[in-house]
Amino acid sequence: MRKLLFALALFIGILPFNACEQNRIYEQNIDLPDNKWKIEDVKEYAFEIKDPSQAFDIYFNIRNLLSYEYYNLYVSQTLLGPDGNKIYTRLHEMYLMDKKTGEPLGSGTGDIFDHAVLAVKKQRFAKKGTYKIRITQYMRKNPLPGIMAVGIKVKQTE
Hints:
Distance between the termini: 36 Å
Strand content: over 45%
Radius of gyration: 18 Å
Number of helices: 1
Oligomer: single chain
Order of helices and strands: HEEEEEEEEEEE
CATH topology: Jelly Rolls
Helix content: 10-25%
Largest sheet: 5 strands, antiparallel
Structural class: mainly beta
Protein backbone atom coordinates (compact mmCIF):
# COMPACT_ATOMS: atom_id res chain seq x y z
CA MET A 1 0.00 0.00 0.00
CA ARG A 2 2.84 2.39 0.84
CA LYS A 3 4.46 1.73 -2.52
CA LEU A 4 1.19 2.47 -4.29
CA LEU A 5 0.75 5.75 -2.36
CA PHE A 6 4.36 6.70 -3.05
CA ALA A 7 3.96 5.97 -6.77
CA LEU A 8 0.72 7.98 -6.86
CA ALA A 9 2.34 10.93 -5.06
CA LEU A 10 5.31 10.78 -7.42
CA PHE A 11 3.00 10.69 -10.46
CA ILE A 12 0.94 13.63 -9.20
CA GLY A 13 4.13 15.59 -8.46
CA ILE A 14 5.59 14.95 -11.91
CA LEU A 15 2.38 15.52 -13.87
CA PRO A 16 2.42 19.35 -13.71
CA PHE A 17 6.03 19.46 -14.95
CA ASN A 18 5.23 17.19 -17.88
CA ALA A 19 2.12 19.21 -18.73
CA CYS A 20 4.22 22.37 -19.01
CA GLU A 21 6.81 20.61 -21.15
CA GLN A 22 4.13 19.27 -23.51
CA ASN A 23 3.45 22.88 -24.55
CA ARG A 24 7.07 23.33 -25.63
CA ILE A 25 7.52 22.85 -29.36
CA TYR A 26 11.18 23.87 -29.56
CA GLU A 27 14.18 24.62 -27.38
CA GLN A 28 17.83 24.98 -28.25
CA ASN A 29 20.76 26.57 -26.46
CA ILE A 30 24.13 27.35 -28.04
CA ASP A 31 27.33 27.60 -25.99
CA LEU A 32 29.57 30.59 -26.69
CA PRO A 33 33.31 30.08 -27.12
CA ASP A 34 35.38 31.46 -24.23
CA ASN A 35 32.14 32.74 -22.60
CA LYS A 36 32.22 35.81 -24.86
CA TRP A 37 29.51 36.93 -27.27
CA LYS A 38 30.69 38.88 -30.30
CA ILE A 39 28.27 41.28 -31.99
CA GLU A 40 28.90 39.59 -35.34
CA ASP A 41 28.16 36.15 -33.81
CA VAL A 42 24.49 35.88 -34.77
CA LYS A 43 22.70 32.88 -33.28
CA GLU A 44 20.01 31.34 -35.48
CA TYR A 45 17.26 28.95 -34.43
CA ALA A 46 14.82 27.19 -36.78
CA PHE A 47 11.52 25.75 -35.54
CA GLU A 48 8.42 24.38 -37.20
CA ILE A 49 4.91 25.73 -36.75
CA LYS A 50 2.36 23.06 -37.51
CA ASP A 51 -0.77 24.85 -36.29
CA PRO A 52 -0.92 28.57 -37.11
CA SER A 53 -4.28 28.91 -35.32
CA GLN A 54 -2.38 28.69 -31.98
CA ALA A 55 -0.49 31.48 -30.21
CA PHE A 56 3.05 30.90 -28.97
CA ASP A 57 5.28 32.42 -26.29
CA ILE A 58 8.95 32.89 -27.14
CA TYR A 59 11.54 32.86 -24.37
CA PHE A 60 15.21 33.78 -24.48
CA ASN A 61 17.47 31.46 -22.50
CA ILE A 62 20.62 33.11 -21.19
CA ARG A 63 23.39 31.52 -19.12
CA ASN A 64 25.81 33.99 -17.59
CA LEU A 65 28.68 34.07 -15.15
CA LEU A 66 28.47 36.03 -11.92
CA SER A 67 31.37 38.09 -13.28
CA TYR A 68 29.11 39.49 -16.04
CA GLU A 69 29.68 43.26 -15.83
CA TYR A 70 26.16 44.58 -16.38
CA TYR A 71 22.75 44.17 -14.74
CA ASN A 72 21.02 43.94 -18.12
CA LEU A 73 21.48 42.52 -21.59
CA TYR A 74 20.19 43.99 -24.84
CA VAL A 75 19.60 41.63 -27.74
CA SER A 76 18.24 42.20 -31.22
CA GLN A 77 15.78 39.58 -32.45
CA THR A 78 14.78 39.05 -36.06
CA LEU A 79 11.92 36.72 -37.01
CA LEU A 80 12.02 35.22 -40.51
CA GLY A 81 9.09 33.49 -42.18
CA PRO A 82 9.11 30.15 -44.03
CA ASP A 83 9.87 32.07 -47.25
CA GLY A 84 12.99 33.61 -45.65
CA ASN A 85 11.53 37.12 -45.59
CA LYS A 86 11.90 39.24 -42.46
CA ILE A 87 8.67 39.53 -40.47
CA TYR A 88 10.09 41.92 -37.85
CA THR A 89 13.16 42.97 -35.87
CA ARG A 90 12.85 43.91 -32.19
CA LEU A 91 15.21 45.10 -29.50
CA HIS A 92 14.82 43.41 -26.10
CA GLU A 93 16.23 44.35 -22.72
CA MET A 94 16.62 41.57 -20.17
CA TYR A 95 17.56 41.96 -16.52
CA LEU A 96 20.16 39.47 -15.33
CA MET A 97 20.90 41.23 -12.03
CA ASP A 98 18.81 43.32 -9.66
CA LYS A 99 19.39 47.00 -10.54
CA LYS A 100 19.72 48.17 -6.96
CA THR A 101 21.38 45.29 -5.13
CA GLY A 102 23.36 43.69 -7.94
CA GLU A 103 22.08 40.29 -6.82
CA PRO A 104 21.82 37.80 -9.67
CA LEU A 105 18.35 36.96 -10.95
CA GLY A 106 17.42 33.62 -12.47
CA SER A 107 18.41 30.27 -11.05
CA GLY A 108 21.90 29.09 -10.42
CA THR A 109 24.58 27.78 -8.17
CA GLY A 110 28.05 29.08 -7.60
CA ASP A 111 28.88 31.63 -10.26
CA ILE A 112 26.62 30.34 -13.10
CA PHE A 113 23.06 31.60 -13.57
CA ASP A 114 20.31 30.61 -16.00
CA HIS A 115 17.50 32.87 -17.17
CA ALA A 116 14.37 32.09 -19.19
CA VAL A 117 12.97 35.50 -20.13
CA LEU A 118 9.61 35.86 -21.84
CA ALA A 119 10.50 37.91 -24.93
CA VAL A 120 7.38 37.65 -27.10
CA LYS A 121 3.96 36.87 -25.70
CA LYS A 122 1.19 35.28 -27.79
CA GLN A 123 3.05 35.37 -31.10
CA ARG A 124 0.85 34.31 -34.00
CA PHE A 125 2.29 32.86 -37.18
CA ALA A 126 0.52 33.40 -40.50
CA LYS A 127 1.04 29.92 -41.91
CA LYS A 128 2.57 26.50 -41.36
CA GLY A 129 6.26 26.13 -41.98
CA THR A 130 9.75 26.55 -40.62
CA TYR A 131 10.42 29.91 -39.01
CA LYS A 132 13.79 31.25 -37.93
CA ILE A 133 14.81 33.55 -35.13
CA ARG A 134 18.15 35.32 -35.24
CA ILE A 135 19.57 36.82 -32.06
CA THR A 136 22.58 39.06 -31.65
CA GLN A 137 23.89 40.90 -28.62
CA TYR A 138 23.30 44.66 -28.74
CA MET A 139 25.58 45.93 -26.00
CA ARG A 140 28.37 48.49 -26.28
CA LYS A 141 31.11 45.99 -25.56
CA ASN A 142 32.44 43.65 -28.22
CA PRO A 143 33.08 40.90 -27.41
CA LEU A 144 30.76 40.78 -24.42
CA PRO A 145 32.37 38.69 -21.64
CA GLY A 146 30.44 36.61 -19.12
CA ILE A 147 27.73 35.17 -21.39
CA MET A 148 28.13 31.39 -21.57
CA ALA A 149 25.14 30.32 -23.69
CA VAL A 150 22.19 31.77 -25.60
CA GLY A 151 19.02 29.99 -26.64
CA ILE A 152 15.33 30.18 -27.32
CA LYS A 153 12.30 28.24 -26.21
CA VAL A 154 8.97 28.32 -28.08
CA LYS A 155 5.88 27.18 -26.19
CA GLN A 156 2.25 27.06 -27.12
CA THR A 157 0.49 29.75 -25.08
CA GLU A 158 -1.53 28.27 -22.24
